[in-house]
Specification:
The structure is a single chain. The chain has helices at about 10-15, 20-30, 45-55, 75-85, 95-105, 155-170, 190-195, 195-200, 225-245, 255-265, 280-285, 305-315, 315-320, 330-340, 390-410; strands spanning about 1-10, 35-40, 60-65, 90, 120, 125, 135-140, 145-150, 175-185, 205-210, 215-225, 250, 270-275, 295-300, 345-350, 365-375, 380-385. The chain is of the alpha/beta class. Helix 3 (about 45-55) crosses helix 4 (about 75-85) and helix 10 runs parallel beside helix 15 (about 390-410). The longest helix has 21 residues, at about 390-410. The protein is elongated, with a radius of gyration of 27 Å. The mean pLDDT is about 95.
């Protein structure tokens, strides 16, 4: 089965909003093992949408459209699909009743223009909208499947997960199981070289690498008659990958490095404190996104100025004068001072040049020092040379810091990614 996405909306073409619908659907379809070779963005124009539908019809089995289901005159998706297929629209009483109840619940009047949202092409399977007013629908016509979904992401995602995904799963005639391995400490090209024979020889299961910002994920997907059979295909492949990549595989699924570090700190009940300079509180903000982290995360300081490093962390003025704020010695004293003043068992510091300005030959943009101090242990400092703009440098420092926390708690080698 091949699928294609057509996202409708002039605002997408003008860059007024980000097209997260296509990203979400692409990820979901890939996980289901449904091939997708084309995505199209079309403005609110009937002629151009008809042309896009005709192209999709001749090359894909399933055409998924998002957007253009609103009450205004430029919301034309259902009308255009119906015209392309030679179908008429009719009022769907069930959807109309749901819309009336929703407007009553919101204590808002339902205007005449909203009636068009309950108009559905003849023969369509209606998809109820639990998050908004416009229903979606599925049309099986001329050997093809047209799936029409609302544009707002929170409506589209809910409708796809609840109603479209089960429908598509039933159409494939087989069980599709995916696993996502999250990897840090190796780039995408080096990873593909490491797994070259496995990737080139793939049939079922398949291996799909995706490069993120500073890390890589591998999606392993198997198709079989049952989920048990699909998992049996995945088990030996995952084992071979883990054997080659070793501790660079840090998690599965949706658990990012910051979430993993937070979980390990809480599970091991290790009290923790942060002192950030160039990352400006980024690490702390990631930690506090995790419920329950207050049981171990004692404090996070943004000591941006030299004066703050001296006053809050007891960094020696002589160190700042001789070595500078961006130095291994400063990172060491920041971590040790924080360990002392916070009372935490583990303290981590970050200082560096995030850019875009401020770098010099001796201390270029991307130079970052991360210090870690722990009660009863020798303080260590990692020196990094990161590339990219300010955000990428900060993000790279964050990933390395949380990976180091993971390695310290789990007793893994700590200098692999320096």
């Amino acid at each position: 089965m091949t699928a294609e996405i057509i996202c409708v909306g002039t605002e997408l073409l003008l860059g007024q909003i980000v097209n997260t619908d296509a990203q979400y659907l692409g990820r979901k379809l890939s996980a289901m093992g449904i091939d997708m070779y084309h995505q199209t963005v079309v403005g609110d124009n009937e002629a151009r949408l008809l042309a896009a539908l005709d192209e999709a019809f001749h090359r894909s089995d399933v055409i998924i459209l998002t957007g253009g289901l609103g009450p205004t005159s430029d919301d034309i998706t259902k009308e255009t699909v119906a015209k392309y297929l030679g179908l008429s629209l009719h009022m769907h009483e069930g959807s109309l009743k749901r819309m009336r109840r929703r407007f009553q619940h919101m204590a808002q009047p339902m205007v005449k223009a909203n009636l068009k949202q309950a108009m559905i092409p003849g023969g369509a399977r209606v998809l109820d909208n639990d998050k908004g007013t416009a229903p979606g629908c599925i049309l099986e016509e001329k050997g093809k499947t047209f799936i029409i979904l609302p544009g707002p992401p929170f409506e589209m995602e809910d409708m796809f997960d609840k109603r479209v995904a089960p429908y598509l799963a039933g159409r494939t005639g087989e069980e599709i199981v995916s696993r996502v391995l999250r990897i840090y400490g190796i780039g995408e090209s080096a990873l593909e070289e490491e797994l070259e024979d496995l990737i080139e020889g793939q049939t079922n299961p398949t291996i799909a690498p995706y490069a993120g910002t500073g890390e890589v994920t591998l999606r392993l997907t198997a198709k079989a008659g049952t989920a048990e059979e699909a998992n049996a295909l995945l088990d030996p492949l995952e084992a071979r990958i883990r054997d080659r990549l070793e501790d660079r595989v840090y998690a599965m699924g949706e658990e990012t490095l910051d979430k993993l570090a937070a979980r390990l700190l809480m599970e091991e009940n290790v009290t923790f404190a942060l002192a950030e300079s160039c990352t400006g509180g980024l690490l702390a903000s990631k930690l506090v996104d995790n419920p329950g982290i207050s049981q171990v995360f004692l404090e996070g300081l943004v000591t941006y100025s030299n004066e703050s490093k001296v006053k809050r962390l007891h960094v020696s003025p002589e160190t700042l004068d001789y070595n500078g704020a961006v130095s291994a010695k400063c990172a060491e004293e920041m971590a040790e001072g924080l360990l002392e003043t916070s009372g935490a068992e583990l303290a981590l510091s970050v200082t560096g040049v995030a850019g875009p300005g401020g770098g010099v030959d001796a201390k270029p943009v991307g130079l970052v020092f991360i210090g870690m101090a722990q009660k009863g242990e020798e303080t260590k400092v990692h020196q990094l040379y990161l590339t990219g703009d300010r955000r990428r440098v900060q993000n790279g420092a964050m990933l390395h810091a949380f990976d180091w926390v993971r390695r310290r708690i789990l007793g893994l080698p700590e200098d692999r990614n320096c």
